[in-house]
Amino acid sequence: MDTIVLKFGGSSVADNDKLKLVANKIIQLKKEGHNVVVVVSAQGKTTDRLIAEAKELSENTEDREMDVLLSSGEQMSTAKLSILLNELGHKAISLTGWQAGIYTNNTNQNAIIEKIDTTRIKKELKDGKIVIIAGFQGINEKMDITTLGRGGSDTTAVAVAAALQAENCYIFSDVDGVYTTDPNKLEKAKKLETLSYEEMLDISSEGAKVLHNRCVEIGDKFKIPIITKSTFNDKQGTIICDKIEENTIKSIVKKDISRISIVGNGIIRNISNIKTVLDVIEENKLNMLEFDVSESKMSISFKNQVSDKILNDIHAKLIN
Questions:
Q1: How far is C-alpha 224 from the geometric centre of its chain's CA atoms?
Q2: Mind listing the pLDDT tens digit for each residue in 106-125?
Q3: pTM for the structure as a whole
Q4: Which residues contact 216 (CB under 8 A, 6 or more apart)?
Q5: Over the stretch 281-296, which tens digit does the pLDDT of each residue have?
Q6: Topology classification of domain 249-318
Q7: Which CATH architecture has domain 3-174?
Q8: Where are the domains of the chain?
């Protein structure tokens, strides 16, 4: 029986109603004959609330104690989901990061996973259980709790998938894939069916928030396909894998207010696309500070704020 790993973000497990949607997706995949391992984030804004409450007590919080505090958010999510799945008649067990065998270095607040002992996970799967793991956390050689920093639950999910040699790792959130640009800024943004790991790394590094770059690096290293999907619909998502397609523009990202990046295969060899971008810059009388071109990315930094209109113009000429 093949194993799949599912990760659900904070917006997906924010309340009991959403937990029921998550449980139904898990049950459906379990019924299809998979061993199912689930990684969850803390509910909603729990982590932000815990940080704020700690700051009310002290402005000089110790990193070790913050890791103990913040890791509790994910533990609550795992326990609630396990309670629900068992109530629905499906055997499940919640595991903290250390119970799941996730060992990290000694850096609190931004730890790096060094190894995963999958013994406990495999035992529970063999017993027919759905295994629910608290994301974002592990344990170091001092037996202290550590947390993995920004995007930590994504990192946990892909690392666990790699350790288990899982067939796929699904990242569920409130968006249904990776788009050619921010769909909240441009209605004509198109969802991408596939991306290479390198392309996804470039998109993530430019500020797109679908996946954190650390989890993509692990996926690339161990060749674990990562599938981004929405918790709230059944639409096809985006697959991040080792596939390299023909030379094409994949995504245009506007970072902050003064940087735009174009990501895809063969960027540096497509003189026509480079000229198109330069023409848009000249037509709009924009002042460039930097213009960098590599195999998979073209990045332009501007002296002044850049409006979304420029993003739309470039998207229309390169993608639409």
A1: 14
A2: 999 999 999 999 999 999 99
A3: 0.86
A4: 158, 197, 200, 201, 204, 226, 240
A5: 999 988 888 898 888 8
A6: Alpha-Beta Plaits (3.30.70)
A7: 3-Layer(aba) Sandwich (3.40)
A8: 3-174, 249-318
